[in-house]
Amino acid sequence: MNFIDAVKTCYTKKYLKLEGRSSRPEFWYFVLFYYAVIVLIILVDVYFLNVSTNEFSADPDAFSELGIYLIFGFAIASLPPYIGVTVRRLHDINQSGLWVGAAFGLAFVSVVLPFAGMAGSIINIIILIMCIQSGSKKSNKFGKR
User: Fold this and answer.
1) Quick one: pLDDT at residue 66?
2) N or C: which end of the chain has fewer CB within 10 A?
3) pTM (2 decimals)?
């Protein structure tokens, strides 16, 4: 699967699909696209939309309101395919998609219990390591190869 096919598949054919399996290229191309778009929005915002500053800064005032809305809108619109491709990638290595649910649950709980954020970060690292692994060559309980 190439870059464009992976992005089209995640945004059109499998937008809300949690069943089945995703190959490593499909997952990593989608992740690359997701973060590339966010970086592009930030660069365009800082250098073109916000004329009050000419240098990149982590200061929230360095971003225009439009840039913040664009990043937030893109992230929200991309959340279902991001979750879906991650769950399907975990299925490809014969793991449950509940890992993603645990990470999200801990992210919400971390608002009240700060240590839950650390646990969520650890789970996200575990998910990342699992997504690097090659998938099972044979059919597994989540579907055929």
Assistant:
1) 84
2) C
3) 0.84
